[in-house]
Amino acid sequence: MADDDLTPNDTVSSTGETLEDAITALTEGRADDASRICADLVDKNPQDAAAVHLLGVIAYKGGAGHAAAFDLIERAIDLDPHQARFYNSRGVINFDLGRSSEAAADFRQATLLTPDDAMAWNNLGNVLLRLDHVEDAEQAFRHALARQPAPVVAINNLGIALKRRGQFDKALICFREAILHDPGFVDAHFNAGELLYQMDEVATAEASFRSAIEFDPDCAPAYASLAQVLHDLHRPDEALAVLREGLARMPDDSDLNFSLRLQLSSVVPAWHLPMINDDERNVAYQRALERAVKPGQLVLEIGTGSGIVAMMAARAGAGKVVTCEVLPAMAEIAQEVIARNGYDDRIDVIVKKSTQLRVGEDLPEKADVFVSELFNVGLLAPNMISTIRHARENLVKPEGRIIPQAATVHAVLLQCDHLARINPVREIAGFDMSPMDRLRSPGYAQIDLAADPHQRLSADFEALHFDFRADLKEVDSHALMVTASAAGTCHGVAFWFDLEMDERTRYHSASSSRTNHWKQAMHFFDQPIAVQPGDVLNLVAGYDNTRIVFAVKRD
Questions:
Q1: Residue 14 and which of 89, 296, 304, 487 are 20 to 30 A apart at CA?
Q2: With 90 as the cut, is the pLDDT of residue 212 above it?
Q3: What is the pLDDT of residues 424-448, one digit of tens each?
Q4: 5: Cβ–Cβ under 8 A, 6 or more apart, which residues?
Q5: Has residue 262 been placed in a domain?
Q6: 490-530 pLDDT, tens per residue?
Q7: Phi and psi of 366, rounded to 5°?
Q8: What does the angle CA 204 – CA 206 – CA 210 come to, to the nearest 5 degrees?
Q9: Does residue 157 sit within a domain?
């Protein structure tokens, strides 16, 4: 409903004011005056269709409710069924209420009564788009643009119709032409950005979304789309910053909140959530910290994650906890968690690798207690051994306590048909799918021995031991002779670990608890081996600075 669609008549109110005075008041933002004048005109002449219509427009714009505005405009149509602007106004309300077929009928009637009404054609095009009558919508927008003056919004809307029809180049021309006519046309900037992104012109799309935000800082979809562009350009920190900027203005916007969660889930590894819900792990760390930490001591933690272990250390009595986290997004969440639990005065979260920490800068002195949780399903994470060594030699007092202090790896020969089918990938459904094997993780697979079908082909055996208090080689191996105890096809070695938190507390990753987030690891041999009871396999169990490996020594 545009104010310039309103036409004055000759009725005069009791105060000498006319409909033209009401239109002027409404245009100037004096809605109360406009409403007063119209009400007086209608009171004086209940058959004044134009005044009744304008009263409905004022009710609609003033937020009086669709029902009240609709009733007034319907009354105006009953009084004078030949006014195109009345149908256009009713069509707008029907459109807002989702009554698309009724809105289409209203806008068509408006174009029949006044074929040169460009906005009526534009409105008809919009409702036809909603009804998925895209070709008819395109023609309606072209009719609008053939009228003078041609509304700029119709250029943008024609672009939308052309995009829906797959005519991307023509659609982009429309959006850019709309921007030439109106450089601050937010929708055109946004639509251009969406189309450019779809055309894989990502860098150019970024500029369009930034323009949309510049002209309308409350354009929520532009923040979400810009964040996706930045994510695709491998700029995740900027993507998160954009979403937080949008949420600072519109904290309750559901799409922005969804986009933030989506971005965070792509930046922060998913295992953080099951890890903090691993009850046995939490209890083991808490008990060890309670025995190790003396009141007022300095604790160093590597790998902040959620901040839960750092808070355990503070709760155990630490005077100060310094913890580091390399992912800025994770560090920010940890800081929020720590603050919510009232430990932000004693815990410092440093956004650095532990090898970048400096005593006297990041830590006031070397730590009394060093705690870490750098492990993965197969115990050793990349560079874990060298990271622990660096911390022990440079950041921890010689007599400092180390948690966990050691680990033992246990293993078993295993037949595991369901995982072996894709480790490696070979033939599937009668097709040679082996090129897909290049996409498989080169490390071990996760297996849940408490739930996944399998057959143990040997007794459990100890494979490796690590003492994190001592200097460990970064590469080592040794031979093992393992006797098969059952007949089957040995696909590889399943293994798990015990963490020696201190002299009294152990954590067992072999736990069958459903909260055990690590489960167990499976190292597959290059080729399966048929075994019978009593067969002896000569194995090599070893590790490097990245992972644990098992190999079969062949004669």
A1: 89
A2: yes
A3: 888 889 999 999 988 887 778 899 9
A4: 85, 88, 89, 119
A5: yes
A6: 999 999 999 999 999 999 999 988 888 889 999 999 889 99
A7: -70, 150
A8: 120
A9: no
Q: Please list, in sequence order, all residues whose beta carbon lies within 8 angstroms of the beta carbon of residue 358, skipping any fewer than 6 positions away.
A: none
Indicate if 395 and 410 belong to the same structural domain: no
C-alpha 289/C-alpha 304 separation (Å) is 15
179 with 189: CB under 8 angstroms? yes
Residue at 244 is within a domain: yes
Burial 489-498 (b: 16+ CB within 10 A, else e): ebbbbbbbbb
Contact partners, residue 187, CB within 8 Å, separation at least 6: 153, 156
Strands 455-456 and 445-447: unpaired
Percent of the chain with pLDDT over 90: 77
Q: Is residue 429 exposed (0-12), middle (13-18) or buried (19+ Cβ within 10 Å)?
A: exposed
Arithmetic mean of pLDDT over the chain: 92
Q: Give Rg (Cα) of the chain.
A: 35
CA 41 – CA 294 distance, rounded (Å): 85
Q: What phi and psi values does residue 535 have, to the nearest 5 degrees? A: -65, 140
CB 17 within 8 A of CB 42: no
Residue 13: predicted pLDDT: 57
Q: At what angle do helices 186-198 and 168-181 cross, to 10 degrees?
A: 150
Number of domains in the chain: 4
Domain that holds residue 247: 204-267
d(CA 107, CA 84): 8
Fill in the amino acid letter for 315. R
Residue 159 has which token pair? 């672009």
Nearest Cα neighbor of 197 from 219, 177, 226, 220 is: 226
Per DSSP, 506 falls in state: E
Whether 429 maps to a domain, the answer reads yes
Taking the C-alpha atoms of residue 508 and residue 156, their distance in angstroms, rounded to an integer, is 63
CA 308 – CA 306 distance, rounded (Å)? 6
Residues whose CB falls within 8 Å of the CB of residue 307, separated by 6 or more in sequence, listed in order: 323, 333, 334, 335, 337, 338, 347, 349
Q: How many CB atoms lie within 10 A of CB 27?
A: 12
Pairwise CA distance, residues 300 & 290, whole Å: 15
Q: Which residues, at least 6 apart from 164, have a Cβ–Cβ distance to it below 8 Å?
A: 129, 134
* Distance separating alpha carbons of residues 451 and 392, to the nearest angstrom: 38
* Same domain (yes/no): 351, 368: yes
